[in-house]
Fold this sequence. Notes:
The chain has a domain at 116-192: Beta Barrel (Thrombin, subunit H), CATH 2.40.10. The chain is globular, with a radius of gyration of 26 Å. A six-stranded mixed beta sheet has the order 1-2-22-21-20-19, with no helix packed on it. The termini are far apart. It is built from four helices and 26 strands. The protein has helices spanning 2-36, 49-52, 58-74, 144-150, and strands at 44-46, 85-88, 96-101, 117-119, 122-127, 131-136, 157-161, 164-169, 172-177, 180-183, 197-198, 202-208, 214-220, 226-230, 234-240, 243-250, 256-262, 284-291, 294-301, 304-311, 314-321, 324-329, 339-346, 349-355, 364-371, 374-379. By secondary structure, the protein is of the alpha+beta class. Strand 11 (197-198) and strand 12 form a beta hairpin.
Amino acid sequence: MKKILLFAVLVFAVIFQSAAQLKIDTRDTVTAHRQKRKFIPPEKIIIPASIDTSKRYANFVKYIKIDYNASINSGFYPIGLSGVTIKFAENGLNLKSKELSQLNPFGPKSFPLSYSVIYHDRIITLFEPGMFMCLQVANLKRDTVFEKMLNTQRFNYHWLVNGKLLAVYKNDYYEFNNNKWIKYNKHFPLLGRPKLFEDDKYICYADCRGEFGGNVYFCNKQTDKTYFTKATCAVTVYKDNGKYKVLSTLGHIVGSANLVEIADPDKLPLKQYPLPQVNSTDEVKKVFSYSGVQLFSTFKLKEQQYFITNWQNFTFLATFANNVLTIADPLLDKNVYMHNVITNTFGDTVLTTYSYYGESGEFEHGIIVINSGCFTRIKWN
Length: 381
C-alpha cells in the first residue's frame, strides 16, 4: 500500500512540475511574441495650414494632433496603413455635407424591405407593409403622385435591372411599365438579394459570412451561367479600361480592404452546388491590399476615383495612388459605420446603400446621396 501511495505522489509531482513548466514556457512565449510584434503607423501625416484651421476638419485634426500623437509617443501605435503617407488635400472637394432622418410613412417599422434604387430621377424605397416611398433626387422631397402610381399593389422586394423597376410579391415578379405593373417572366438571378453591379453583359451580386469569407458572382446575361470568386466582402464592382474591379472590405479585428482586377469573369469558376473549393487567382489580379482600414465604397467624381474610407473611427472621402492616401473631404467629420454596402452611379448621382447590424440588422439602415456638390446621409429612423 505504501508503495502505491509513493508512486501516486511521484506521478502527481511530475505532472505538477510539467504543468508549472508549461505555464512558464507559455508565458515566456507570449512575452517574446509581444516584444517582437511591431505596430507600425503610417509613414507620415501631412496637414496643410489651410486644413489645420478649417472648421470642417475640426474633430479629425484634433484627433491627429492629440490622441493619435499621444498613442505614437507612448509606443501603442495605431494599427493600419503602415508605410502609407496620409495627406490632406489643400484643394479638396468641399462637399456640402448634411444628415437627414426619414420615417416610414406607411407603418411603424423603420427599415426598408430592400435596398433603395434610383428610377426616373427618384429614389425608390420599399417600406413595410410593402409600399413604395419616392424622394425626388433634385431636392429629396417626397413625390406622392409617383408613389400612388407604384402602390397599386404590395411587394416584398424590389430592384433596378436593365433600367427597369422590378418587384416581387411572394413568387410572382413584376415590371413597372407604362405606369402600371405587369408580369415579368424572364430569368432573374437576384433572388432576395440586392444587385451589386450591372452592365450589358453581367449582373453581379455577392454574399458575405464576415470573417468566414464571402464571394462575388457574375451572372452572364446571354448564357445565364454564373461565375464566382472569393471576395471578403465585396462592396463595389466597377469597370475600368474594359476590366472589372472588385472592392472588398471587412471590419473583423482591425479591419481590412483590398481591390482586385478581373479581365474576363467568364474564366472564373462556374457557380454550382456545392460551390467548388477552387483557387481563381490566375484570373484575379491584386491591385492593393491594406489592413487596419476599411474602404466602404468607391465611385468616380470629376473623372477621379474616390473611396469612402474609415480609419481610426473617422469616415472620409479619399483617393489612393502610389501608397499615398489623400483625404479629399471630411464628409461629416465623424465615424459613419456601415455594413453590406452597395454603391451605384445613376447619371450624375452616386447612391450608396448600407445596413448597420447594431440597429437594422441586414435591412437597409440608410442611404448616402452624392450629387451637385452635396453629400447627404439619410437615416431611416
